[in-house]
Amino acid sequence: MQPLPFIGRLHAYEFVTLVLSMVLIFVESIISIITLALPTPIIGFFYRGSRRAFNHLSSPAGRRSRNKKKNVSSPIAQAQDFVELCALYGYYAEEHIVQTGDGYLLGLHRLGWRKGEEHVRVNSGPDSLKKKVVYMHHGLLMNSDVWVCITEKERVLPFLLVEQGYDVWLGNNRGNKYSKKSINCSPADVKFWNFSMDQFAFHDIPDSVNYILETTHQSSLSYIGFSQGTAQAFAALSVSPPLNDKIDVFIALAPAMSPKGVFSSVVDTFVKASPNLLFLAFGRRAILGSATMWQAILYPPIFVRLIDMSLTFLFNWRGQNISPHQKLAAYPHLYSFTSTKSVVHWFQIMRNAKFQMYDDEVQGPLSFSTGGKYYKVAKFPTRNIKTPIVLVYGGSDSLVDINVMLQQLPAHTTAKEVSHYEHLDFLWASTVDKLVFPHVFQALDTYTDPEKRRTHQRLQPPAQLMNRPSFSAPYTTDEDAYDSPTSPLASRKFSENLPSISSRIPSTPTSTTDRVIASAKEPQSPAASHLTGKTAGWWSSDEIGGTDVERARESTPSPRPGSRGTPDHLKDNYGLKGISLGASRPVGGVSKGEVEIGVGAGSGAEGRKKKKAKKKEGD
């Protein structure tokens, strides 16, 4: 007899921890209710008390350091919204509203003007200034503020894109700070919060993209996502073929697809045993609503310490690449509302190790499992994505399993590693402008420039090379045996046919490394692929262009404001690794006598000329 799905997975100490966690959640809920009823002077009293206690316990050097940076971080931390954050740096931002197909009203923000261009018409008709469009999307429990709540302008990616001549749009998920409205129901109703990543993929992303393209009179745009913003794009592109034609390139920062789980074994066991237990802990509306309460009553440095401790406990992130004053500026903007159901969806993905749609028929804690014989949860078919994909991930990010991710993505995917980066570093690290932004600019230059994109398309491998290689394996009746990254067959298939990242890329603690996914100049037999360490049917743009994968130097300067493409000095440092292609030459060919049949340009014409010349000699 099979063990009970919930009881059989928890040890005695984990049951005790579970009970204590539920008690703490209950106590926090009571405190939150009491805080809402307290008058403002009482809340101010608690705030001042926490400030005095923190200053008393901290060192004099720490107090001097905070006071020195206070003038930088405080205005950003106290800014009320996206428009105000942009105004701090002198940028004008527009606010837009898009209605989704199921009635939610989503807030969009637009940065389309350099300083001094505020009165110029941009992408507004035939006589307006034409600019390429970039769309940026935030992560889980966030909103568009996270892209601009940064203490130095040189590290604000939207501002740099604007200065390079892009029309930049930033999206928001339903339920968050800017999208907490629907024409069908109120946020006070449980129905309003009945959404998961499925709704983000089928409505929020495609409806936002369509609105932006209609407003700007453009046929396509470039997509930059962070964390869950990448997962939503993976899902949306996989289920909507027309959307692939509307996105030139998908740049995924700290990509998320099928995380292994959380770092804390107790929490990981708790949520994987039965993800629906989160509904018991947090209800069926917004999750972690008490976060705003703690922010209101705690002195900012204490709130920062609390967030850091939580991130270390859950994900083992240390936050050493983010400066203390950047945390003081950004952490007040870190949290935004989302549904408990969307978090439950993530734990279903972790539990099943599959990037799947929400499971509405998940079994209860006391039900017996019948396996997958009669019911299969639909997976997002991410291998069907046709849009070029560029992954930029952190080597110290516990939420990224790059091998599993690459197994689920198409062969034209390109991956780049920043070896010592964690998840949030891709937003706020002190060196993000040197180690991450050059990859973003390079990808945009390659896939949004018409001439460069035509060159890239000419050098794409033949259709038969783009197909996934076939694998011989013992017969199985489980159709997901090869797709599940935890199955023995999948592990053997992947390890035998896909070279590991560590074996193909040198890595240092402080350098950015690139990884090209598709890698074979011409079709190889299984024997040849075994000798070369490359899977049959894989193809590399680096080999075609004659450029080897090399390390990027860490000391790359930030791009020049006002330039429209990647500056020349960045190209010198970062080269054309993985994304841009080198000189065109034949991928493969067959020679027979004097008549040449090949893929390269002109090979067929030369063969026909030689054949005609030979025929004339015979006559």
From TrEMBL:
Keyword Cell membrane: no
Entry GO MF terms: hydrolase activity
A GO cellular component annotation in the UniProt record: membrane
Topology term for the membrane: Single-pass membrane protein
Pfam families: Abhydrolase_1 (PF00561)
Any Gene Ontology biological process: lipid catabolic process
InterPro entries assigned: AB_hydrolase_1, AB_hydrolase_fold
UniProt-recorded name of the protein: Alpha/beta-hydrolase
